[in-house]
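hey team, just a heads up i'm posting the complex here instead of the shared drive bc the drive is being weird again. everything in one block, sequence lines first with there labels, then the predicted structure for the whole assembly after. its two chains so it's a bit long, scroll down
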Amino acid sequence: MRTDQLMNIFGRLKKALSSRKSRRGQVPFIILFKTFQGILEKNNRILDLMAEMGDKLGGDYVFDKQYIVSSSQEMGDLVYKLIYDLDTIAPRKYFDLYDAFQRISHEIEEELVGRPVIPQADLVIPFETISRDSGDVVGGKVANLAEVHNILGLPTPEGFVITTTAFKAFMEYNKLWDRFRQEPMTAEVGKEMRRLIAQGLLPPDLKRALQQSIEKLQQAASDKKIFLAVRSSAWGEDSIHTFAGQFKTFLNQPAEKLGDRYKQVIGSAYSPSAIEYRAGKGISEDEVAMGVGCQITIDAKVSGVLYTLDPTTPEREVMVINSVLGLGAPLVSGEVAGDQYLLSRTPPHELTAVNVRRKPSSLALKAGGGTEVRSVPEELQMRPCLATAEMLRLAETALIIERYFKKPQDIEWALDKNGQFIILQTRPLNLQSQMANLVCNLTAAVQEYPVIFRGKGDIAQRGVGAGAVVIVRDDQDMEDFPAGAILVSKYTSPRLAKVVPRASGILTDVGSPTGHMATIAREFRVPTIVNTGEATRVLRPGQEITVDAEENVVYEGRVKELCYYEFSEEPFEESYEYRLILRVLKKIAPLNLLNPHEKNFAPGGCKSFHDITRFVHEKAVEELLNLDFQKRKLDAPARRLKLPIPLGLMLIDMGGGLEETAEGSVVEPGQVVSIPMKATLEGMIAPGMWSTEPMSVDFGSFMSSLTRTFSSSLATPKYMGQNLAIISKEYMNLSLRLGYHFSILDAYISDEINDNYAYFRFLGGVTDLQRRSRRARLLAELLEAHDFRVDVRGDLVVGRIKKLDAARMVERMRTLGHLVSFTRQLDVKMVSDAEVENSKETFDRLAAGKAPEMN
Amino acid sequence: MNEDRKTQILILDDEPIVWKRLKPALEKAGYEVEAFTQSSSAMRRVQEKEFDIVVTDLKMEGVDGMEFLTDVKTRSPKTEVIVITGFATMETAKESFQKGVFDFVAKPFKRGELLEIIRKAEAKVFGK
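-- predicted structure starts here --
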């Protein structure tokens, strides 16, 4: 269905529904409950689907655009029905959800038809806070450079980016958008655009944001007046397309000129050559979004360009460094040639050719702004720009960047007055065709290298890396770790994180692909195979090997062909489908509504489908709790269950779930006779499960622990979240929110074995990725140990079991009860992989009814 | 794997991403791979050359994968055909198997899964 059609339908539906007379109080409870169950089911399917789509980013799957389209549609359909369901429970109360839904689905639709939406982000963002994959906000060039600094930790100029959001704001503020979207883009229209942009005014909030950013930079620079390089950073620039030389750059600009320079840079998006470039590459005008990087001027002693692989003779495996004295602009523009050095790509990067050229002049910073040409003293003209040690340093740095981006790189660099190399820009060298020629006979080539092991261990990060084996056992080994080597270690340890960016590949004996090491390896994109069982035993220090973490093979020797093959392949991350699913997922998966007590916990705060899903779930539970049972003439009010643990839990009995004697608004655990509920409760309150903290012995702390419990139970249920159980004799549906964890238990237990089932879903909350993945692993292992069929997707854990006899089902429910209480405290604990094992032991001991070990 | 010559595989899918992701994995596994996005060119190619294994999508813009695989099986009954499709229904699966298709894989799939099926198909082609 087309978006506009869809919008129409929403509009009509909204109108129809809002004119509907309230029938609240007339909807029978059983229908409300069925609707509630429907919400839970859809909620589960949505989370599953989200995780399935997320899995596709991992690289194992082959998927096409059709998949992205159809799963987005299914997702939209489910979310829409979810909103509809909530509307059944609470008619017209959360109507604004339809607006949120419409907005988000419209954005997804636009992405799918190839009209990328410029995201809503800050107008100006400091480089150091740019996160990965934010190319659509900051533009390609700045995104690359931010990763070089923020992930690889290499020096880059300080500064900030004026985002694509600001570009959009500028275009809208000056009403330029509509104009050029009406006419086909030609050189003529482009000229008019440039004129209008030059005359345009900066929106006041952009002006303010720029002023603040400049002041901040100025403060950091203390009394020295700052000057800026103003550079384009368009969508796709320096990643998919180079746009080399298409856009304007201004060097050494005083802050007060920034506004004008900004307009000139974005105007250059409409220069005749840029328009032609887009036409030639099939880039639509809708894809024009210009970020602008503002970097503190680097007073370079020497500048240059490094190619990590000589494009003219790639088979010779050399890097090329071209360098000039002073600023690099004349070299980059091709006006001068500069010195040229060729270095081997393999450590220790032997110098294979040197060509020092006469440098009669250099470009230098002019006092007060801009640049000027200066003549170079006679005696320096024939001196090489770089010393050998400097070249080596530069070469190592360049290869770190290449390994990260998985392509030979074209790097602009500067050597500052302190002798530090600063990376100014990096982009992939397009060598695909040359590479393909080099690897024409891959199979034959690969067969020449002995396989050391194959199919052992788990791939944690794909890719191919070659180098010398370095077995890391202690901190000293880490200090000495040479760049480009293969890191081989018995264990995965967070301490190894230090050397990961310098490694070409990683092999470990033990460890899990969801563990800490895997996370770090993925962060730095270092090809990694964990849990090989024997890497440290089989491999010798210094041995040259190739890790093929695509096919899970380790070869003896440097399999150049494989490395080249990697270069010749389009990296999965660069493919259109990868970028599309990533963009679509950005509108689906992020969870912004965390705390129901925050102001943004409202339909208007929903920025993703996940937000809507979360909101609907929370409100559905709340609505069910607040039902006015008196009015409904129903004898199933929500009652508070009195528990020995500080947990506010409301019960709704649909029949036979409580002793007939149970009266009033508070129920004792002993009065619960629902088979699954009773077992779950027993599990939850089993000694030690809720808290394994040792019992206090002295009176004072005893009292304080009492009051602590007292006050936290007072704060329930509002504070601890809405916890609701709907029960009958055989049935239980329990929704729990403990801290930031969400659990759902749904079970039916009777004498009819075939009807029996239990479903457990756990979704973790805000903690770092490693802890979450450890917690998911722990849960999965514990559930599996009790015969559950388990699916783990990210931090979503689902366990299912069915068709056991009643006694066995009851045991499983007790275990789930244990887990619910036990996992409550896991967040803080999951600081290391070892803690997973510890927790497992503690859990087993507690489940067996033994007191936890004190330590 | 056949000792004398590499096993010949043809991939047809109108979405380039499919063969872009498959070709490297198959080549590294020792196969010779030709990939097509247009069924007309794939059709022409199978008239010139006999492939051991054909991997094809079913529903493509303008053409019918079913037609293509029928043609392949008629021309060269020995060739094993593996269908990959994003629109898996019982009917299409049934029809494919009736036409003598070796296996039927729903998209999206893992590269390893397809590789496994190709190995089995290969064993059948070479009577191992």
